[in-house]
Design goal:
Helix content: over 70%
Number of helices: 10
Strand content: under 5%
Distance between the termini: 27 Å
Number of strands: 0
Order of helices and strands: HHHHHHHHHH
Shape: globular
Structural class: mainly alpha
Number of domains: 1
């Protein structure tokens, strides 16, 4: 029971952060899921959680979604995520932990580099970008640190940005979850664990709407860097110890 209480508490915080800055739920919650259930179960559990989290963002800002951007991103992202998920299931647990940890650490400077370039992109760029990010999503669970600056470069802000990024990501996670289910990596007990964890993330995400217009995003960006550092170091430690 203490394990689930911890997952629910951390999940609510993860949902709150993700609902404000557009990403962060995975890097906050994933290390807890890995410690609680192991890396093999944690990845498909997080896929269920991500579906629920993105659904909450979409329903919070439904009227502001840019469907053209969503469709372009999903066109490349859906096959990319399926391919990445198949690749993930061929890897041993220690490699998964190490890959997740290194990815999070690299994305600390990487996301700042992308954000600081201030590129303005069109919908055509979202298709190949979606495939590349989708493939990485299939392997490393979440690529919010990449998709966030991508949709920012498209010109979206605040509610439109949160909802459109979530709608595009939802398509990727549906593809990933369907691949897991087809390959037998989503048994009923894993789905139940994902629903439990996802319920707290959804609650935090809905609460985030109340804060989005009031709190300075830079505060959460610094928080995101911190949790990515902690998450990356924790997962690398689990892989090498």
């Amino acid at each position: 029971m203490l394990t689930y209480a911890l997952v629910l508490a951390v999940g609510a915080v993860a949902g709150l952060v993700s609902g404000v800055v557009g990403t962060g739920a995975t890097v906050i919650l994933l290390p807890v899921l890995v410690l609680a259930f192991g890396p093999i179960e944690a990845v498909p559990i997080m896929a269920i959680v991500a579906l629920m989290s993105n659904f909450a963002k979409i329903t919070s800002w439904w009227k502001e979604i840019d469907w053209r951007a969503t469709a372009a991103y999903a066109l490349g992202g859906i096959p990319g995520a399926a391919l990445g998920a198949r690749t993930l299931l061929e890897l041993p647990p220690s490699v998964i932990d190490l890959a997740l940890g290194v990815f999070f650490l690299v994305m600390i400077p990487g996301r700042h580099w992308l954000a600081n370039r201030n590129y303005q992109i069109g919908a055509g760029v979202l298709v190949p970008s979606g495939f590349a990010i989708g493939f990485l999503t299939g392997i490393v669970v979440s690529t919010g640190p990449l998709s966030v600056p991508l949709f920012s470069a498209y010109g979206l802000v605040k509610g439109a940005f949160i909802a459109t990024e979530a709608a595009g990501s939802l398509a990727l996670y549906i593809s990933k979850a369907a691949t897991f289910r087809t390959l037998g990596a989503l048994p009923t007990d894993v789905v139940v664990k994902g629903l439990i964890a996802g319920s707290s993330v959804m609650a935090g995400t809905y609460a985030a709407r109340l804060l989005l217009e009031r709190l300075h995003v830079a505060t959460f960006q610094r928080l995101l860097d911190g949790v990515m550092l902690i998450a990356g170091a924790t997962l690398i430690w689990e892989a090498i110890r």
